[in-house]
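Exercise: predict the structure of this protein bound to KG4.
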Amino acid sequence: MRILGIETSCDETGIAIYDDANGLLSHTLYSQVKLHADYGGVVPELASRDHVRKIVPLVQQALADAGLTKDDIDGVAYTAGPGLVGALLVGACAGRALAFAWGKPAIAVNHMEGHLLAPMLEDNPPQFPFIALLVSGGHTQLVQVDGIGQYQLLGESIDDAAGEAFDKTAKLMGLDYPGGPLLSKLAEQGEVGKYKFPRPMCDRPGLDFSFSGLKTFAANTIAAEGTEALADIARAFEDAVVDTLAIKCRRAMDQTGINRLVVAGGVSANRHLRAELAALMVKRKGEVFYPRPEFCTDNGAMIAFAGMQRLLAGENASLAVTTTPRWPLSQLTVPGAN
Ligand code: KG4
Ligand code: ZN
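Solution:
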């Protein structure tokens, strides 16, 4: 079975074709980063309009790259939420319409489930159960994954997501949008331990996170130390975020007795985070899994993969085009259960 996956929840148009027997056949991505850079963040209306421009050519390209035609496709998966409602609507309209025109099932995919399952596209996929750390621009969550569609939220950010904290702090430092990767690059030139940032919510029990205080701490440190200290401040900020994430991962694994960790979402591309979690898992004699770097951030491949799990179970979305801009993972069900 082959499925076409469509991702348009934010500022990336991602299209992919996944085959349940042969894996990923093609994937294309158009990033709108340049379009939004002047505004310092994603402008929803501009995002929607650009998805409209790009979606059909990218679908055609994905089919051509895989050497397939529409007749080779058995279903169409699209991101239905969470995300920006206008951006989601473009992918949902296109996906539902293509499926209808082709006489095939349509699958409404949860974007976070896509991120969560993305490591399963790799050669050495994780076995269930595992603990997933989802760290993106919109989410910071620890989830116990017992199987596809069986997600138990263990903890999440009570304010800013980790990626959002990276981006906001980068903006304070005068870095371009999205600043997360740029801040991380700057941090490489910084001295370890020059400044000490707090590890929020680590001194009390529980698996929730809070990152908005770190951004304020960075603002105050920049004001006190001046811009020549930016690299050292970036280093201290990144260390604090990475340490905090690692401490909570360790706690989640201790609490559940599960020694297998999956890290996904845009921030999982962070090299420092990967190194720290790799060291943690060596120490614990456990395993850690990531998507390849290009599938850490938003992409169509993860949507095609998640959609395939539900297509195989016979799911088919209603003909009405609906999106679910707020759609917690805990509301998902086992494929085919509804
Ligand atoms: O998953 P994603 O592409 O989009 C959302 O669904 O949010 O994640 C984007 C987020 C942005 O906040 C971006 O700054 C952050 O991931 N990010 C990073 C790195 N690469 C991407 N943050 C820190 N270090 C990185 N290397
Ligand atoms: Zn995402």
